[in-house]
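Following the same procedure, the fold was encoded as tokens, giving this record:
***
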Amino acid sequence: MAQLHGGRRGCLSGYVRSLWPALFCVLNCWAQPWEIGAGAGYGWYKNGSVIAPAGTASAGIRNRFSLTVFLSEERYDRISGEVRYTYQDGDPFLEAGGEKTNIQGQSHTFHYDVLFHWKDQELRIRPFVAVGAGAKMFVVTGPANPSAPLQNIAQLTTRDQTRFVVSAGGGVKWKIAERVSLRIELRDYISQFPKRLIAPVPLATARGIFHQITPMICFSYGL
């Protein structure tokens, strides 16, 4: 019986020792300077076009407001990583020859960015540039119009579509309190033409890369 208890104590001791590396990793992770933040802005689109035998129409997403949230880790003085989500309320549209049509919609962008700062962490004002990549979901929130114009060029469908997105931009971080920072930035979300959502007719061609150019004001809090 003594040997049995001793074996159990040995197993328990070994188990506790095996947890130390995992515990060390967790504590080391939380010791890093994390920031959580949110902000708002306005998304201006550089859109595309659809060229068909019946004519050419401008095609894209309407300019509307944007909201964003992010979680940043500043492990190094001048390089940080950031997970980010951005919402933009914008309707897909077609427009040509004085006719126009749209369908209610929005987009959801998830991406990871690397930020390169020109100044060290202890300074109050820190300019930065950012670049990253992720996915952008174009989501339709309204019904299709069966009598919509320009259906001889393209059709606005109710099919959602996800596209690869590249995020690029920059801005300035300004520490306004011990743990609170104000961030003024400009982002460009670059994605391919969503051909399932804005569907060209047969023999038509969709052209253009979508740019959602979005100035934002954000606040962040250091954890």
The helical segments are 2-31. The chain has two domains: 1-31, 33-222. Confidence is low (pLDDT under 50) at residues 22-31. The chain is about 15% helix and 60% strand.
